[in-house]
Amino acid sequence: MSSxxxxxxxSFAEHRSGLKDVEITGSxxxxxxxxxxxLEAFPPLPDKSTPGEKTGEPxxxxxxxxxxxxxxxxxVFHVPLEERRYKDNSQFGEGEEAKVCLDIMQKTGAHxxxxxxxxxxxxxMVTGKLDSVMKARKExxxxxxxQASATVLxxxxxxxxxxxxxxxxxxxxxxxxxxxxxxxxxxxxxxxIRITGxxxxxxxxxxxxxxxxxxxxxxxxxxxSFEKAFHPFISGAYNRLVQELSQETGARISxxxxxVPKDEIVITGEKEAVAMAIAxxxxxxxxxxxxxxxxxxxxxxxxxxxIVGPKGNTLQEILENTGVSVEMPPLDSASExxxxxxxxxxLGPALTQVYAKAKSVIVVEVIAPAWLHRFIIGKKGxxxxxxxQQLPKVHIEFTDGEERISLEGPTEEVEQAQAQMQEIxxxxxxxxxxxxxxxxxxxxxxxxxxxxxxxxxxxxxxxxSVRIPQDxxxxxxxxxxxxxQGVQLARKELMDMAQRMENERTKDLIIEQKFHxxxxxxxxxxxxxxxxxxxxxxxxxxxxxxxxDIVQLRGPKNEVEKCAKFLQKLIAELVESSFSISVPIHKQxxxxxxxxxxxxxxxxxxxxxxxxxxxxxxxxxxxIVITGKKSSCEAARDRILAxxxxxxxxxxxxxxxxxKLHNSLIGSKGSLVRSVMEECGGVHIHFPAxxxxxxxxxxxxxxxxxxxxxxxxxxxxxxxxxxxxxxLYLWLAAQEPASQENGDTDLIPRKCDIIIVxxxxxxxxxxxxxxxxxxxxxxxxxxxxxxxxxxxxxxxAGIRKMMEDYEVNIWxxxxxxxxxxxxxxxxxxxxxxxxxxxxxxxxxxxxxxxxRALRSYKVTLSVDPKYHPKIIGRKGAVISxxxxxxxxxxxxxxxxxxxxxxxxxxNANEARAAIEQLVAALQDMVSEDIRLDRRxxxxxxxxxxxxxxxxxxxxxxxxxxxxxxxxxxSKVTVTGLPENVDNAIDHxxxxxxxxxxxxxxxxxxxxxLAKGFVVRDAPWNAQGNKAPDMSSAEEFPTFGxxxxxxxxxAWGPKKC
Length: 1056
Known about the structure:
Layout: E1 4-7, H1 12-17, H2 38-41, E2 72-79, H3 96-108, E3 111-116, E4 122-129, H4 130-144, E5 148-153, H5 159-163, H6 168-177, E6 180-182, E7 192-197, H7 199-217, E8 219-225, H8 231-235, H9 240-249, E9 252-254, E10 264-270, H10 271-291, E11 293-298, H11 304-308, H12 313-322, E12 325-327, E13 337-342, H13 344-359, E14 362-367, H14 373-377, H15 382-390, E15 395-398, E16 404-409, H16 411-431, E17 433-438, H17 444-448, H18 453-462, E18 464-467, E19 477-482, H19 484-502, E20 504-510, H20 516-520, H21 525-533, E21 538-540, E22 550-556, H22 557-576, E23 579-584, H23 590-594, H24 599-608, E24 611-613, E25 623-628, H25 630-647, E26 650-656, H26 662-666, H27 671-679, E27 684-686, E28 696-702, H28 703-741, H29 761-774, E29 777-782, H30 788-792, H31 797-806, E30 809-811, E31 821-826, H32 828-855, E32 858-861, H33 868-872, H34 877-886, E33 889-891, E34 899-902, H35 905-923, E35 926-931, H36 937-941, H37 946-955, E36 957-960, E37 971-976, H38 978-1011
Parallel strand pairs: 1-11
Antiparallel strand pairs: 2-4, 3-4, 5-7, 6-7, 8-10, 9-10, 11-13, 12-13, 14-16, 15-16, 17-19, 18-19, 20-22, 21-22, 23-25, 24-25, 26-28, 27-28, 29-31, 30-31, 32-34, 33-34, 35-37, 36-37
């Protein structure tokens, strides 16, 4: 039984005085690494043999040096005649065998030579790098030699050793034996491994597989349970003892890390090695259990981390120096009790080291107002940087919103840092002050100004710092910090600005954008006058690109109102004076209207207060535009027309033409009426506005030309009437047979509607047929009313395209009529083509309807929500593949609903079966929790999760690591099929052991490297010699140097 004594820090001295004086010897064991002699590390070159002496193999240390292997190898093998795949010898070197060899050479990069033996067997020589030769050999055997197959039976649990890590062992075996080896899946009950290849290759592969299985039969796995407290004695400091045991016995020993609450130690290896390891471990455990005792001490929780040290190195150091194990309470426990376990005479020194480590670092708090913290830190951390540079082991931490500043580090350095911090605080408190003012957050951007102009000016002028909260905070508290006098002056100015802004008002005026330029004036002259009149009002016009009509006024309330009324009055005047009329004046009279030096036009402008714009000289336009008030524009127009009348004998006449003929007389884009005006000496013809219903057309110009234009217009109108009547007659003629059949005698053409064709009989018939072909016809096509909207298309696009393609007019009945009749009007041939096109479109739409009906088939199935993420897959990969493979739409439900699959009946059922199969596989899965050392998590996960994804794909499992802040940070969950989960867990535990031991080896290697390279019996150790001076040009001469030696060095006499 082990006794427990509870010691406090105060009674430690008394406890220590009662212990026997024990001579503490260094616990570092002797270096076990072999130190070579100088001659072994640097063997001399062999002496030159005497002439006539037989040279044998080199003697001495040089005989131990391995020869360098050639990078290019050659292999020759023979294919008997009975095993040749291609036996046609008539064209050796040109048949299939040669083609196959060329293809293999291109794929592998190896060189292949074929030769035919006397027994008609095939000799093949392959040259190249080892990897290329092995690949080429495998290809040759597979493609030039007939294949056989055989099976070999080994236990199912040995299959994974044949496969090897990531399948590397299996690939190596296939290359080595030039065979194809098929291993059954883990879920397949069959244990037979099938080998395909040549007879020789099959025998080699079978032999190798049986060797692997036999080797695994010799191995054993043992699990021992020992108290967790004794594990450190078994593993030793820095895991050195357990590594030595592994090397001596050849067994692999896995001890759970301190963070894993497991007592089980796993030993694997050959049976004899495992037995030896168990005996050694049990002996250590029983010895320590018999000899050790424990003491408990109380140490503040905050000091525990200094006892543990980085990565637990301090605990390992104490164990190495004293042989005592220090047991720390868990981090999440409030306990402050630390237990020391070891031999009684070693507990005292260990306790001394524990208290020394606990006191090696202290934490001190310095109090300073929170607003002063950033000044203590300084610009870009200058102030605090000076302290940390002088005292690099001190860590300084500022807490937001709190007055305390924490200093952590060695006692002496922390005290120095504390003194420097207090001096800085005292100095800042003497010359710094602050003030806080509350200003509505709406005014903050005005306080800041454009690009920070206002606030930067205040900062520079008063040498203060002003902190204005962000708009998103919606906080009105503005803080000013700096020199006391500057703070007060800045505060006063900011308060005055805020007060002015509180009395301000913002008003929006709606002014059409076309008037903005007129209000601003040329180079801003007019708006400058307005701003001078109302200096306290800010007038903001929108950017031209915004196309906005809102003009913003901001300033004192009364001034804003006065400015708004002034601008509204100005706008009313602009609107009134923006009336414009166009007056057509003959081009030859424009210069007379302008007058000498612009006298006439200037006089008219001034007297009527209008703006008059004449077309450019090189322009064909005759229109003069007058802008201003309506009455003024009309007065200016009368004066300009009076000038024209004085200069020419102009006449104005009116002619009555039916309004329905106006468009045809104007012509396309006015071409017909323009030709009349040009032909009649440039008269002006004015038609009334479209839709007015007026028949009067006005003609203005020279008297003779007006009469001529009048006659031409009347003649054109009469021709248009005759043309329309002729078309009507032709239409009636086309309808005559139908009317006679129906007994309808009302459609009798008038005499004026008859067209007479004169000429030879056959020509007249052709002309009649051609005229009748020009007469439009109308036919009815029956189309289901449900399809009308699809025929019309989006915004009428479909029906318009059909009318353009077939040159017809298509009339679709209004929706309220619910009619199935669509009318097509146009020439006979066009109407027939349009009918066929419409019926074809109807067939397409009906097929689409049937397809939509099929695709609306729906299948629902219930799936536990916990499987949904697995069905969706990473980034939707699994569900996207199902949608792609079966051409379906899969919808995942809201909470409590069922999953749905839409599409064709067959596809939907197949997709449903695929999802159910996936769910069935997921239901067979299990989840197991294991605990892995937190230190190895990052290495197992890998960069951006690459390593863990590869691991999950290899073992077909899902591995979840704990989130930061988790209650059990070592807990890792593995989900998948039971066998896959077991394999993955074994692999993870192996990785953990490998990474932990690697870290320990790295630490040992670093210690060994610090010692440098050591040799025994060096020349400079001999009496009278000294170590060579590396800085001396004589001891280490450069190439080409001609310095003569002054004395014999430790290296011996120099040879020429």
